[in-house]
From TrEMBL:
This is Uncharacterized protein. The lineage of its organism: unclassified sequences, metagenomes, ecological metagenomes. PROSITE patterns: PROKAR_LIPOPROTEIN.
Amino acid sequence: MNRSVLQDWVCELPFMQQSVLITACRGPDGLPKNHAAKVIGKYVRRCFLIRAFEKDECCNPYAPGGGSFTGPCTNAKIIEVGGVVTNTHRMWPHHTALSSPLCCEKTPLLDVALGLYLDAVDDMPHHFQTHIMHAAQILGACHPDKNVSDWWQHCYLRIVNDMHLNIESIEQMNKRLGDNEANWRAAEL
């Protein structure tokens, strides 16, 4: 019997927040396969979708499996810039406390990918960038695994800073994307 491709925790979110995550699944057209946007997009998908081949949840950015859609979140360019790191799938302490609030020691290649992504925002449509930013915001605020939510919160803050925007609080996000039309319209002004 088939089930939803969404991880269970996503189904507890308001429909508008679920929709934001789903719209972030699609990567930007016209970019090379090894572009950092593709790596960040893979990690977005890995953090809220069930992997099709394995039929499981895998938020470890470096674990093997997942095919090309939800596969490991690195490539030759990321490794070249980030240096040689071996056994990356063992680096993610999936159920241990973080020693750093920014996760940088735990996700070195993913942080390299984020840096390359932010260096290349002019390569991408602005609309795509906002999909990633809002997905990062939701994953940072709502993902049940603290390692994952901490990294996405870090990502959201870096994107907001890069775009010279104000940070939206979790309360503001929940009001804007809480399935209440009046609140949503008020936020659109």
